[in-house]
């Protein structure tokens, strides 16, 4: 698994590619890219935590590196939205008057709960819900790994995945009239992260990992079939119960393939997208909203095409600018908090997920 980071970068590129296709109205099922992000995140973060568990700076190094990677762009975006975009939007009539109460849910990384409750669903930062789930995972998971023996951790992680799937089913049956909150609330969306984490734990012992590898094709085709059928049926209740599990299994199969360095997405194009995936995730949705308002559709194809072409290009340029001005200066500081890896399996990752897209 020596080259897994390079291959998983390509998978990360696929994830942001799908999400952007979804938001730019080019491929509706592209929402599944978020679940690909979740599986990647669970795998890479768990590999790092297991590999550094015996380090005396286990917590400090992990959290400082997370802070340097995630928070500069995240909080810069929040400041731009609440201090600039919202006042301008209120003044010119294209934004609601979001205030401090709304901002605090984002500041403390709980935005998915706020949005899932029906607030700010039409805002420029609605898509930050997935970053909230990622951050909540970062808060809890290092402590659980630190205090739990690896063998017991396998069962706990598997139980989390099963409980998440069952919880979605129960919630859907109890609230058939409204399934939107299921898409945002952490307990119902943690399944994909748990499956990625489970794969990382199994990777600590080569026989267990090889057994998982032998299941890769079955996971792929089962997940693809279940997800595909639910998408074809187009019923949100069925997607909530079965579709999210299907895409989680499919994403896990793609991750196993990438970890074995035989991913079809290990290409220059997808790795390039993967490098900028965090900033692309942050910028693409507000760019889409603004572009779609500028290129108002008159019923022809001209408006949507211009929105997609200009929006994608602007998102990419902003992501490149963010990499130079915001992200890279802070990333250089991560060397001060280097990981001391003690993983059982050679080739443990030395880099981590840049989003989520998040």
How would you describe this protein?
With 358 residues, the chain is mainly α. The protein has one domain. Helix content is 73%, strand content 0%. The longest helix has 35 residues, at 58-92. It is globular. The two termini are 24 Å apart.
The number of domains is 1
Instruction: Give me the strand/helix succession.
Output: HHHHHHHHHHHHHHH
Number of helices: 15
What share of the residues lie within helices?
Answer: over 70%
Summing up helix and strand content along with how strands pair, one would put the structural category as mainly alpha
Poorly predicted regions are 345-358
Computed over alpha carbons, the radius of gyration is 20 Å
Mean pLDDT: 91
Number of strands: 0
Report the portion of residues in β strands.
Answer: under 5%
Q: How far apart lie the N and C ends? A: 24 Å
* Outline: globular
Largest sheet: none
In brief:
With 358 residues, the chain is mostly helical. The chain has 15 helices and no strands.
Outline the fold blueprint:
Layout: H1 4-23, H2 33-51, H3 58-92, H4 100-107, H5 111-116, H6 129-147, H7 150-174, H8 180-184, H9 186-202, H10 206-214, H11 216-233, H12 236-259, H13 268-275, H14 277-294, H15 302-331
Helix pairs in contact: 1-2, 1-12, 1-13, 1-14, 2-6, 2-9, 2-12, 3-15, 7-9, 7-12, 9-12, 11-12, 14-15
């Amino acid at each position: 698994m020596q080259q897994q980071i390079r291959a998983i970068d390509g998978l990360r590129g696929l994830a942001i590619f799908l999400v952007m296709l979804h938001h730019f109205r080019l491929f509706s099922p592209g929402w599944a890219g978020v679940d690909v992000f979740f599986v990647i995140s669970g795998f890479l973060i768990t590999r790092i935590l297991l590999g550094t568990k015996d380090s005396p700076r286990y917590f400090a190094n992990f959290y400082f590196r997370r802070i340097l990677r995630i928070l500069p762009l995240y909080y810069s975006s929040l400041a731009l939205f609440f201090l600039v975009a919202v006042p301008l939007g209120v003044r010119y009539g294209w934004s609601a008057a979001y205030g401090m109460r709304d901002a605090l849910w984002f500041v403390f990384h709980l935005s998915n709960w706020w949005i899932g409750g029906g607030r700010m669903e039409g805002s420029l930062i609605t898509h930050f819900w997935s970053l909230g789930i990622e951050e909540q995972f970062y808060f809890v998971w290092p402590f659980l790994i630190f205090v739990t023996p690896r063998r017991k951790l396998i069962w706990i992680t598997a139980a989390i995945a099963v409980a998440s799937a069952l919880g979605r089913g129960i919630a859907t049956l109890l609230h058939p009239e409204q399934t939107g909150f299921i898409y945002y609330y952490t307990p119902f969306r943690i399944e994909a992260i748990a499956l990625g984490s489970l794969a990382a734990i199994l990777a600590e012992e080569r026989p267990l990992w090889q057994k998982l590898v032998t299941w890769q094709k079955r996971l792929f085709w089962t997940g693809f079939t279940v997800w595909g059928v639910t998408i074809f049926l187009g019923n949100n209740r069925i997607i909530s119960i079965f579709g999210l599990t299907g895409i989680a299994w499919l994403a896990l199969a793609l991750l196993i393939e990438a970890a074995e360095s035989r991913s079809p997405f290990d290409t220059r194009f997808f790795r390039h997208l993967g490098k900028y995936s965090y900033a692309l995730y942050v910028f693409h949705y507000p760019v889409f909203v603004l572009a779609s308002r500028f290129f108002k559709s008159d019923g022809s194809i001209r408006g949507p095409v211009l929105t997609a072409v200009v929006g994608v290009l602007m998102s990419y340029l902003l992501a490149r600018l963010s990499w130079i001005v915001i992200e890279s200066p802070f990333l250089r500081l991560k060397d001060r908090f280097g990981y001391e890896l003690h993983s059982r399996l050679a080739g443990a990752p030395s880099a981590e997920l840049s989003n989520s897209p998040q």
